[in-house]
Protein: OmpH family outer membrane protein
Amino acid sequence: MKKAILILGVALSVLACNKNDEKSESFKTAYINTSELIEKYEKFKDEDDKFKVKSQELGRPLEAKVKAFQNEAQGFQQNAQAKGQQWAQQKGAELQQREQQLGMEQNALLQQLQQEGAVLKDTLISEVKQFIKTYGKKKGYDYVYGTGDAATVLYAKDQYDITKDVLKELNDSYKSTKKDDKPEVKTEEKK
Structure:
């Protein structure tokens, strides 16, 4: 009786192993080079360019203040000997206070830009992840792995690399939405 149960158990485990082997062979997998995707995705490039312009615009008033401060500091050095020690001490304290204030403004601006940049990057990455998820479902993949800076795949055959396909569809999708966002140019008919 025990032998029969043992033989039945071994037979079932062999059958179970065979079924698992069959299932694992039918998985459809691929990987994406996430570094390349981010580098070549046109929306990332466009948003990065917009963010650089915004950063420069936000930094212009501070740059003007810093330049004015530097000019005033140069004038202070030239006038310090002529106007006396008491004036130099008073003016030096004022300049030091303004320098600290400019430093705080610069830090606040940098922090604001870092936060806005992080939010923008997170938003774009979420969009790309959602696109990849939809793409994977549409193409029938069981798994889509990522490689690049945050590598989750240490090795894969090149035939499983779908980076170019996903990048093409991502850029095509972005271009079509970009065209839809452009305002229509009206042309006047000649009478």
In short: Residues 34 and 138 are 19 Å apart (CA to CA). The chain has five helices and two strands. The first helix runs from residue 2 to 25.
